[in-house]
Amino acid sequence: MIKINLLPYREKEKKENLQRQIFILSGTLVLFLLIMIAVQLYFSMSISGMETKIREADAKLVVLNKKVGDLEGFKRDKREIEQKLGVIKSLEGNRLFPVRMLDEINRLVPAGDIWLEKISENGQELRIEGIARDSITVAGFMKSLEKAGFIQSVDLGVSREKEVSGVKLQQFILNCGIKRGM
């Protein structure tokens, strides 16, 4: 005999299956939403932490830039002071040079044979104007000047005969290159 079950067990099974699927789906959805909220909170906290670090780094950068500016100012002041000290050292080294130079020239002039009229210094050049007994005396004076420690070179600019009180003398102009730091 054939039995027929009139109870809706399959419908009941389908209904239970559908309820189970809805429960699993809603649980999965809730779990997904919780994970998304957790990820969002994690990223928000990370971003706020990074923004805090950026603000701290910017504050440090401002302080360091101020220190770098101060350091550049100190370097500039140091360069200026070193330059001024160099000028002072140069002036100190060259302070006695004119005195030594004139003393040396005075010793090199042959007494009674040469009379110096004018000595002028312009930078690295010394100009000596004078009168000598003859051109041989001028040549001897030029050779002795070349041997002087402060003279680099001696050039005869002008040499002409000049009569003074009936005596023929040699008027001359010497251009000399100067060596500093003697």
Strand order of the largest sheet: 1-2-4-3
- How does the major sheet shape up? 4 strands, antiparallel
Mean pLDDT: 87
| Proportion of strand residues | 15-25%
Helix content estimate: 55-70%
Which term fits the overall shape? rod-shaped
Low-confidence stretches at least 5 residues in length (pLDDT < 50)? none
Number of strands: 4
Could you tell me how far the N terminus lies from the C terminus, measured between alpha carbons in angstroms? 143 Å
- H/E series: HHEEHEE
What is the radius of gyration computed over CA atoms, rounded to a whole number of angstroms?
52 Å
Number of domains: 2
**Number of helix segments?**
3
Class by SSE composition: alpha+beta
Give a quick set of tags describing it.
alpha+beta, 2 domains, Gyrase A, domain 2, 182 residues
List the helices and strands and how they pair.
Layout: H1 9-94, H2 97-108, E1 114-122, E2 125-132, H3 135-146, E3 151-164, E4 167-178
Summarize the structure.
With 182 residues, this protein is of the alpha+beta class. It has helices spanning 9-94, 97-108, 135-146, and strands at residues 114-122, 125-132, 151-164, 167-178.
Structure write-up:
With 182 residues, this protein is of the alpha+beta class. The protein has 2 domains: 9-95; 97-178, 2-Layer Sandwich (Gyrase A, domain 2), CATH 3.30.1360. It is 60% helix and 24% strand. A hairpin with a 2-residue loop joins β1 and β2 (125-132). The longest helix is centred in the first third of the chain and has 86 residues, at 9-94.
